Amino acid sequence: MKRGAARTLRAMAETAPPTAETPPAQKPSGKKRVKESIWEVYYPRDVEREREAVPVASFPMIIYFWPTMVFFLLCAVVQGLDVVAPTTIGLWATSVWALNLLVIVADLDQKKFTIVMLLFAVFVLLAWVSSLKDMGFLSGLSSWIGGLQVTYSTHAFLVIGTLLFVLTFFGLIQPRFNYWRIEANEFVHYIQPWGRDQSIPRQGSTVTREVPDVLELLLTFGGGTLVIKREGEVVARIDHVPFLSRRMKAIERLLGATRVTVSTDES
Question: For residue 246, how many other CB atoms are within 10 A of its CB?
């Protein structure tokens, strides 16, 4: 009996399938996500590095008027030095101010912006030709524009430039307390000092960059609007985000598998 049992055990041992070896535990990659700074709502740093979240905030439209602010303050200095004719300074200052107003008057997509620039180039060309050759109405219009005595006092330049500086300063404080935190698993809206205000799960959501206005893109150095959609419906729009093209690199790296698209409205 003992010999029979021994043979049976030996046969079972020989025919039993080999035991699968336990795979060795994978070593951690060693990459540590960088803790973002809330001050990155103003300018994103280290967009190529792995990070825990990307802060994004909507800015007031006063940020588009930084060229007027800078130019008016510069005009105050130049006019105080009396190196350029006051009428020339006034005409250029008015032109910069009018260009800034276009941002809030109309949304110029790529096609509209191209058309406006072509019309402006044609107008300048016709004005130059009419100054060399009599072209009736165009020559009269060109002479009238050239004869405009648009002037500002040095104090006016200084007051307007300083006022825009103060308004811009207070406008830049707002994003520090009202911002979004784009995380790997959710998108969270914060209103400080109260904390979390809204949370959107990442699953089923997409992040899209829209550029409705070319002037907005230029004046905010690649800015635009960040749109969060969930199941095809827009659940959040973050408007007037400066440096958005740079932020999208960090968002795309953070979300990984989540599709991040860039689109331009041309309606």
Answer: 15
| pLDDT one-digit tens code per residue, 93-109 | 998 998 899 888 888 88
Within a 10 A sphere around the Cβ of 105, how many other Cβ atoms?
Answer: 9
CA 173 to CA 116: how far, in whole Å? 34
Distance separating alpha carbons of residues 207 and 216, to the nearest angstrom: 19
Tokens of 230: 């969930």
Q: How buried is 91 (Cβ within 10 angstroms: 0-12 exposed, 13-18 middle, 19+ buried)?
A: middle
The pair of three-digit structure tokens given for residue 224, joined into one six-digit string: 């635009």
Q: In angstroms, rounded to a whole number, what is the distance separating the alpha carbons of residues 18 and 2?
A: 26
Tokens of 255: 């979300």
pTM, rounded to two decimals: 0.74
Domain residue ranges in the chain: 63-172
Provide the pLDDT for residue 13: 39
Q: Give percent of the chain above pLDDT 90.
A: 45
When pLDDT is cut at 50, 70 and 90, the band that residue 6 belongs to is: very low
